[in-house]
Amino acid sequence: MKPYYVTGHKNPDCDSIASAIAYAALKTALGEEAVACAQGKANRETMFLLNRYGFEHPQIIHSAKCTLSEIEKDEAVLVGAGITMKAALDQILSRKNKGVFVTEGNGRLIGIVSMSDLTRLWIQNEDEMRTLMSQASLSNIERVLDAKAYNREKDFHTNGVVHIMPSMSDRSEIYRDAVVVLRNNPDVQRFAIDSHAACIIISGEDWVDNVTLERARENHVSILHTPHTVIECSRLIYQAPSIDTVLTRNVISFRENETVDVVSSRMANTRFRTYPVLNDKGQVTAAISRYHLFHYEKKRFILVDHNEVSQSVNDLEYGEVCEIVDHHRLGGIETVNPINIIARTVGS
């Protein structure tokens, strides 16, 4: 739970400062976390007494509102722009976040990739899928298929077309610059190589004969072997493009020092499920959603040396008053829950 913020009235005097320090110390001694606060800098008389008896000035507080840095949030999932869509999807599914934040090496935000950005792959039309696959690197294809390379061409490029289990009776030109997934059949492999495919992916026995390998090198065709079945390859390979092909760069983000009510107002006009929280350097520190804004724990206050709203911390309605210890008249503070009140006509 949050600590108790023990605070006196505005324009603090010696009563107010000493009361906050003393009561916070008492609560702490009783095993509860409490922080002495003041609503401004102490006057010269009080500063003399603090210095004389070795006390630090209480923490200065001006508002009962919580900032994003003070409420519970989700851990941000940070990734680089070059990871595969499969890796990003695995990250999302392993946690409760609904998206991953794409950052530079220094942690600064580039964009966001949501669950819907990734699952939309499965309903795209053929032309869109081909465009995405044409941007997939050979190393990304290796990663999603857990493949090893028998021949890796440095200048790998593909037109984005993926053929599954080709037939030697097909027209050879349809395989030019394509990715071809096949079983370990040397004749079919050589047919795809002679057709100038960009890459052949072998599923099945883990071997390639020297004749096929040499022909692939001559024709600048990459050869990969995967432990996955042909059917598994047909599903996985379309998750090989990098997430930078689908990420949203114009991202709505929030700062750690923004208050919950301000963030709630801005978030109400948007439709996203998760948002990045940034520090003053623009680095992503956390993820936040509507859930956090509706279920956060308010600041808890103990008011000393006052009990009137006009004398209390600003925006008191956004906090929770838990106790009052005072020697003034009662000024009519309203609370949601029952509280302990000590109001006695005594001196300071």
Can you walk through the features of this model?
This protein is of the alpha/beta class and 348 residues long. It has 11 helices and 17 strands. 27% of the residues lie in helices and 21% in strands. Strands 3-2-1-15-16-17 form a 6-stranded parallel beta sheet. A 5-stranded mixed beta sheet has the order 7-11-10-9-8, with helices on both faces. The longest helix is centred in the N-terminal third of the chain and has 16 residues. The chain is rod-shaped and about 100 Å long. The mean pLDDT is 93.
Give me a quick take on this structure.
Helix content is 27%, strand content 21%. The protein has helices at residues 14-29, 44-53, 85-93, 115-119, 126-133, 138-144, 186-194, 210-218, 230-236, 260-267, 290-294; strands at 4-7, 34-38, 59-60, 78-79, 99-103, 109-114, 148-151, 162-164, 179-183, 199-203, 222-226, 254-255, 275-278, 284-288, 300-304, 320-326, 340-343.
Secondary-structure topology with pairs:
Elements: E1 4-7, H1 14-29, E2 34-38, H2 44-53, E3 59-60, E4 78-79, H3 85-93, E5 99-103, E6 109-114, H4 115-119, H5 126-133, H6 138-144, E7 148-151, E8 162-164, E9 179-183, H7 186-194, E10 199-203, H8 210-218, E11 222-226, H9 230-236, E12 254-255, H10 260-267, E13 275-278, E14 284-288, H11 290-294, E15 300-304, E16 320-326, E17 340-343
The portion of residues assigned to helices is 25-40%
Q: Which stretches are poorly predicted, pLDDT < 50 over at least 5 residues?
A: none
Shape annotation = rod-shaped
Strand order of the largest sheet: 3-2-1-15-16-17
- State the major sheet: 6 strands, parallel
Q: In whole angstroms, how far apart are the ends? A: 31 Å
Mean pLDDT: 93
Rg, alpha carbons:
32 Å
Instruction: Estimate the strand proportion.
Output: 15-25%
What is the string of SSEs from the N terminus onward?
EHEHEEHEEHHHEEEHEHEHEHEEHEEE
Number of strands: 17
* SS summary, helix count: 11
Structural class, from helix and strand content?
A: alpha/beta
